[in-house]
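INFO batch 0412 | record 1 of 1 | parsing
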Amino acid sequence: MTADRFRVVARDGGARCGEMSLDGRRVDTPAFMPVGTRGTVKAVDPGELGASGTQIIVSNTFHLMLRPGSDLVRAHGGLHRMMAWDGAILTDSGGFQVFSLGGRVREEGVDLRSPYDGSPVRLDPEESMRVQRDLGSDIVMVFDECTAWPADRETAADSMRRSLRWARRSRTAHGDSPAALFGIVQGGTWPELRIESLDGLRAIGFDGYAIGGLAVGEPMEQRLEVLDALVPRMPAGAPRYLMGVGTPEDIVEAVWRGVDLFDCVLPTRNARNAHLFVRDGVLRLRNRRFRGDTGPVEPGCGCPVCARFSRAYLHHLDRSNEILGARLATVHNLWHYQKLMADLRAAVRAGMLSRFRREFRAARGLPVA
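INFO prediction complete | emitting tokens
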């Protein structure tokens, strides 16, 4: 990614703050991207997204090509206009569905079944790039294979090298698209395979580099081992994206190591199950003890939910299966995540990330390394 599209503005140890400019849309990093798989972040509208501090979301190529179809999205002028979202959009390539839906992997591409009607679907690097161009994404991801965990070294190596070949095909098919194109590092939990993957991607050349195939069940210790080996070798002038991560604790540890972008379903999925993030962990509002709690979800939070509604009211809405309960919980969780990212950026700029990390972990009763 050229200097006019991404620049690092502050560093603190391995961590950094940056600014991305994507077709005039600004994204401050480190950034968290809520997941809007089907062109919507569940339970909230674009205005609520923007008010939370969200600048960029993630949508999914595979699901949108099936419903409503990329031709219909293109007819609207792209996904931004169709969903009335003024911020940036990153689209996953559909490669994760190879992992989650169990497609048949061949060198040419992947054969899957539609989760909607069971019809056969073929997805390959060329088709993924075509669909993402129809969607009008700001950041396009290469088509890759997400290696399952656990995987022996030979399996992880074969999968990673296939992803490299697909990355080169994706680069070619991307052609003259004005969107940024990110490569995806694979290689399982084998640091040497991760480094081989990164070296191969750098030889092809991409605007940014993602780390895929983590947060798929591996122990935290193995994930951090991969990050410690990989992130310092990633290009300093390009964004670094850790896919599918994660919890606030995961994000703080990855920012500490130099990662810039994150996405995860946790803040929205957990909200729909009445799990609300707060400074010292998670409140499970379905618990009967909240039935008479007239206090806000989190004192001093600053979000519109905490300013207006009580824990008891959200408990009541959830127990009554009222849609408003999911909406309010989602708004709170999105604000919580975006406040975390703003605090991380401020800590990096002030050279205070080490202190922030210690206090953050202590608030959750976690050991401070």
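INFO post-check: The longest helix spans residues 323-350.
INFO record closed
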